[in-house]
Structure formats: structure tokens, C-alpha cells
Amino acid sequence: MIFIQLILAHLLGDFILQPNSWVADKENRKLKSQYLYYHVLIHTILTFIFLWDLKLWWVAVLVGISHFIIDACKLSFQNIQTKKRWFFIDQALHIAVIGGVSLCFNEFNFEFFKNQEFLKIIGAALFLTSPASIFIKILLSSWTPVTEEEGNAQTESLSSAGKYIGILERLLVFTFIVVDHWEGVGFMIAAKSVFRFSDLAQAKQRKLTEYVLIGTLLSFGIAVLTGILIK
């Protein structure tokens, strides 16, 4: 229970009870910002409240001190270019501290690493990320349509958007199959068709439409086959 209690305190303190104005002030004034210390104090108090055990006072103090050190490092080293990276590093370190405290109370064991079903699912999910993207890219390498409106700001896509859309859709399809909800796969195909192919119809470029259709079917097909193999 300690892990869940600390996670709840973290979510409340780091997101819900931290106004955007505090975040902006911390980023501008760094360690001189009073809101950094308010933020750490709120975290410490929330940890006390969720634990609700005076014998565990040291856990709240440890979480508060570690939170201050992690946030101070983030504020000191992050800039506009690395802001996103430092956000995830910051959150990972906070979760690591919470996990470490939970380990002290023997809340976790690593027996699941010996579970064959768990390892199969993790392996399949990893395959459906970048490896599957590379596989699809190689299969489609002989067809690279050039759009007539290339360079137009209205038609340009986000950087690597297609790759991440493919990864997310494959993971969702795989999840639906593993939990025996095949109707979710149909919903995914229908949703993507509505959003993607309406744009392609407006572009009136048959080669591009066929290219995207082949890529989409390959992506869904690989996810479906992987799900069936795991099942």
C-alpha cells in the first residue's frame, strides 16, 4: 500500500496542486523561487497525510528532501531545448525514489520476470514499436510517393508523427486482441479511416493514398498476427 499512497501524494502534489503560475515562476527564478519551497512542503505534507502513520515520518522527510534535490537539478540544468527531456527525467527519478522506499517494505518482488506469459507479452509489445516500424519502412521502401504540394505549410506533417501513430495503433490493436476485445480493432480501423483518408481524398493523389493504405494494412496486420501468436 505504501507505493500506491506515495504515488497518489505525488500526483496530487506535482500536478493537481501545482498551478501553472508556480511552474513559470520556478523556471524563471530557479532556486530563488519561493514556490519551489512551497511545492516541496506540500509534497511532504501530502506524504504525511497519505501514510497516516507517525512511525513513518522519515519516509515523508525522505520524499520531501529527494523531491527538492531532483527539482533543483532540473531547474538548474534544463533549458528550452531540453525541457521535455528533463520533464521525463524528473518524473522517472521521483518514481524511482517511491519505488525504492516501497522496496524497503518488501512490497515488490521480481517473480514476474520468471513468468513466461508476462515475458511473451512484453517481448511482443517491444517488437511492435520500433522493430515493426523499421520492418514496414523496408517493405515500403520501393514506393516513396512525392506529393505535389510538398513544402506547403498546410500539408506538412509533424516530425516523425507517422512513426509514433503507427506504434500507438499497433500497441492498441495488440492490447485489444490480448484482452479478447476484437471490436476495438474494428473501431481503430474505422477511426483512422475517417481521420486519415478524408485528407487523402482531398489531396487527390492516388499514389499517396495507395502508399498510406498499404502501410496502414501492414501495420494493423502485423499487430493482429502478433496478438494471435501470443494468444
Biggest sheet descriptor: none
N→C terminal distance: 32 Å
Name the average pLDDT. 88
Outline type: globular
Query: DSSP helix count?
Result: 10
Give the ordered list of helices and strands: HHHHHHHHHH
The count of β-strands is 0
Q: Structural class of the helix and strand makeup? A: mainly alpha
Note the beta-strand portion: under 5%
Query: What is the helix content?
Result: over 70%
> What radius of gyration results from the CA coordinates?
23 Å
Poorly predicted ranges: 149-154
Pfam family, one: DUF3307
Protein name: DUF3307 domain-containing protein
Transmembrane segments: 35-52, 58-77, 118-140, 171-190, 211-230
Keywords: Membrane, Transmembrane, Transmembrane helix
Write the topology of this structure:
Layout: H1 2-16, H2 20-29, H3 34-51, H4 57-77, H5 83-104, H6 116-127, H7 130-139, H8 161-178, H9 183-203, H10 206-230
Helix pairs in contact: 1-3, 1-5, 2-3, 3-4, 4-5, 7-10, 8-9, 8-10, 9-10
Pfam family, one: DUF3307
Organism: Chryseobacterium terrae
Protein name: DUF3307 domain-containing protein
